[in-house]
Amino acid sequence: MQRFHRTTASAILILLGVASLVHAHCEVPCGIYGDQRRFEEMLEDTDTIAKAISNVQELASKTDALSANQLGRWISTKEDHATNIQHIVAQYFLTQRIKADNPAYVKQLTAAHAVMVAAMKCKQNAEPATAETLRKAILDLYRAYEGKEPAFEHK
């Protein structure tokens, strides 16, 4: 019996550990949504992508080991933040928030797709224009989703 409790306790701890690593909002549905926070998070990710692109361009011509290490880290960071944006759009907006019965559905879906594509382009490219295109796409999604101009404190 004690072995069963230890096994059960271990399984619960593992599940709790995995659950704490999951970054997307729950899909229970819990009814607790933070749309504004998701947009702000995507914009912050975009700022990080823009900074990464700048650093990648700066480090790309250097040949020392430290620069090579930092170059790899900035590329990885850029891709991680672009992936986070794609996950927010897919797992939060597309599966939970954008509804087919909404009159703006096609507009919202089109805008969400544009964000996904722009994030992909940020992974594939190291040009500052890709980050700016992503920022514009996120703001366009906000307009399509909220039906108003964005008003963010985040810069």
Topology:
Blueprint lengths: L1 H20 L13 H25 L5 H33 L7 H20 L3 H19 L9
Helix pairs in contact: 2-3, 2-5, 3-4, 4-5
Give your account of this protein's structure.
The chain has 155 residues and is mainly alpha-helical. The chain has one domain (32-146): Up-down Bundle (Four Helix Bundle (Hemerythrin (Met), subunit A)), CATH 1.20.120.400. Helix content is 75%, strand content 0%. It has five helices and no strands. Helix 2 runs antiparallel to helix 5, helix 3 runs antiparallel to helix 4 and helix 4 (105-124) runs antiparallel to helix 5 (128-146). The termini are far apart. The model is unreliable at 11-24 (pLDDT under 50).
Fill in the keyword field for this structure.
155 residues, mainly alpha, Four Helix Bundle (Hemerythrin (Met), subunit A)
Q: How do you describe this structure in short?
A:
This protein has helices at residues 2-21, 35-59, 65-97, 105-124, 128-146. The protein has 155 residues and is mainly alpha-helical.
